[in-house]
Amino acid sequence: MTDEQILMKAPGRFGGSNYDEQKVQNALDDLPADLTADRYMEELLLLLAEDYRPYVSTFINFESTITVNNQRPNAKLTLPANRKLHISILLDASGSMKAKINGKSKMDSAKEAIQHFGDKMPKNAEISLRVYGHKGTGSNEDKPLSCRTTEEIFHGQGVQTDQIKKALEEINPAGWTPIANALESVKQDINPETTDSVVYVVSDGIETCGGDPVRVAKELHESKVKTVVNIIGFDVDNEGQKMLKQVAASGGGEFISTDTGEALEKYLNKAYEKLRGEWTLWIEKGTGQANIQKEKKQGELNRTRETMQRLMNQENLNLQAALNYMKTKKESSLPWSDIYKKIENRKSFAWRYADETGRRLYNEVSQNGKQVYDEIQDEGKKNVDDLTDKTKN
């Protein structure tokens, strides 16, 4: 029989909590006086063997692999697959964006910052870029056209954001500022399966088309796909800042005021760092799960091994007591020395099985846990470092 088959035998009648010294001695008195050492050992085990079956079963069925429920990123820069992120960028293309700051138009500065931001997007995030105020002129005659027009000029994955620059090239500042209409249009851009939605509105002024951006931002924030609306005020006067702050507050986001393209880019980098935090959390969650699983499995193995060994010690003591009792009753015919060796061999065999099997599985768990931990740590750190380098460019 295999080691497991030997140890999986049923326990003796007086094993474990059923032990009763007097009943054991009565049973020993009934044994014939002319048995071989092997037969005496069999009879002793039928009386006093401990129950190792639960612990041997644990070893036999033990799964030493470590499985982390936190899908790794692939070679490309991505967010964890169970997160579906949608990022909407709304660009004000009203006539006031023609104004220059430090020799460069607000529009050109905003385009450069948005393109730079887009280059750093998670590659599997869904990105949409929508412009408003780019139709008509600032005249009252063109106001209806300008106010009702908002256009999504890019919609794709973060891996495709090199197309944003080309899409922006055709956009020139022209008309009025329909912020509410642009926010309303975001609703149709968001995939229903989205889990996280963020909007960045880049504007240099207040709503001028009679819409209610505060209400629409609130609706977005309270919708089924909860959306956070952030407002980036680009060289906005005090009156405009007051209104745009209300929009951001109702949208659960923040308002930031910038007055140069460099400041705008700095803010977008800050927003991007928040996205990079997804990777840091992914690493922490994955390595934490790996460690917890490893320690839990190792603890179970240690308990199983130690419990088996305690039972072996107790079994050995009970067998030795039984042998000593038989020696006083059957001294002339009892093969005492041979039985004693078999009792000690039984203990050595069972102890060795528990020790070697427990330690082997313990080492497997350690190696598997370290491998999973290192894979998550290495891949995650590589991507975080890559994102860190991009924020410096």
List keywords for this structure.
393 residues; alpha/beta; Rossmann fold; 2 domains; two-stranded antiparallel ribbon; oxidoreductase; D-amino acid dehydrogenase large subunit; oxidoreductase activity; vWFA_dom_sf; EC 1.4.99.6
Summarize the helices and strands and which ones pair or pack.
Elements: H1 3-7, H2 21-29, H3 37-48, H4 53-60, E1 85-92, E2 100-101, E3 104-105, H5 106-119, E4 126-132, H6 143-148, E5 150-157, H7 164-169, H8 179-189, E6 196-203, H9 213-221, E7 227-234, H10 238-250, E8 252-258, H11 261-329, H12 336-392
Uncertain stretches = 72-82
* Percentage of residues in strands: 5-15%
C-alpha-based Rg, rounded: 38 Å
Give the SSE order as H and E letters.
HHHHEEEHEHEHHEHEHEHH
Q: What fold name stands as the CATH topology of the largest domain? A: Rossmann fold
Spatial order of the strands forming the largest sheet: 5-4-1-6-7-8
Largest sheet, strands/sense/barrel: 6 strands, mixed
- State the total count of DSSP E strands: 8
| Level-1 CATH class name of the largest domain | Alpha Beta
CATH architecture identity of the largest domain: 3-Layer(aba) Sandwich
Distance between the termini: 69 Å
Provide the helix percentage.
55-70%
Q: What is the overall number of helices? A: 12
The coarse overall form would be rod-shaped
Q: What is the total number of structural domains? A: 2
CATH superfamily of the largest domain: von Willebrand factor, type A domain
Q: What do the pLDDT scores average to?
A: 86
User: Helix/strand-derived class?
Assistant: alpha/beta
